[in-house]
Amino acid sequence: MNSNQFLQKILEPSQQQLVVAMAVTRWSAGSIITGDQVDEFVKTHDNVTALQFDVEENPELLRYFRIGQVPTVIVLKNREVVDVISGLTNKKRLFNRLNKHLA
């Protein structure tokens, strides 16, 4: 999937639900941990969709979202970025930040 297709895939559903896009790399342990945490959150919230992209395979998205480190969690709602969580964070803090956007 190219960068434009990925953007369409995250922007369209964000009109109806919360979209969590994760900027990751295959070699980053933090990416794996954050991915597992986001997957757990999505399983308990029907109105949340999560997608990942590898920043090394999609450098255009790295620039588009101004990502400085991985993992980075980008939260979208109504086709707009409403939150960005850079770096590894604990599950409680991540869940609190995501829940804030469900109201």
From TrEMBL:
Gene3D superfamilies: Glutaredoxin. Residues 27-99 form the Thioredoxin domain. It comes from the Bacteria. InterPro entries: Thioredoxin-like_sf (IPR036249), Thioredoxin_domain (IPR013766), Thioredoxin_H-type-like (IPR050620). It holds the Pfam family Thioredoxin. PANTHER family: THIOREDOXIN (PTHR10438), THIOREDOXIN-1-RELATED (PTHR10438:SF468). This is Thioredoxin 1. It comes from Neolewinella agarilytica.
